[in-house]
Amino acid sequence: MADSQPASGGLTEEAALSCCSDPDPSTKDFLMQQTMLRIKDPKKSLDFYTRILGMTLLQKLDFPTMKFSLYFLGYEDKNDIPKDRNEKTAWVFSKKATIELTHNWGTEDDATQSYHNGNSDPRGFGHIGIAVPDVHSACKRFEDLGVKFVKKPDDGKMKGLAFIQDPDGYWIEILNPNKMITIINS
Asked: pTM of the prediction?
């Protein structure tokens, strides 16, 4: 077995691969469908994810007896969203990489309510990532719109990618897929 950890820390590539199994054929139709984020104020979050990040609200689901709502967003053409509710629900849950914003009713009026973004102790969840054609142009737009930055593209050691925050403080990595090899190798 390869070294379990290189001198610099973490697993070697060989060690990582040795921990993995080939996918079972029964999982061939599985897909990464959603990431859920709890939100305090749906008005602020929906504005951010649609106006700032350019996502489309795909479906809203309310659960009155449990006092919460779900908002599913993604990069889909709104004209492709089925009109029939049942068809729409199946369609939404078949899309790859959607965001599910969960709003527990009343949190928007609670001044003490906030959610942990996972980037301070105790660390956990880190961020979601959005691929853009041009990181600097996207970040210029975000800056003009008053978006809060954790890291601008020319800051830090990893030049060419950025991190912004949504209204609840969740981190969002802004990256260009075609530039990642340069960032990784620098």
From this structure: 0.91
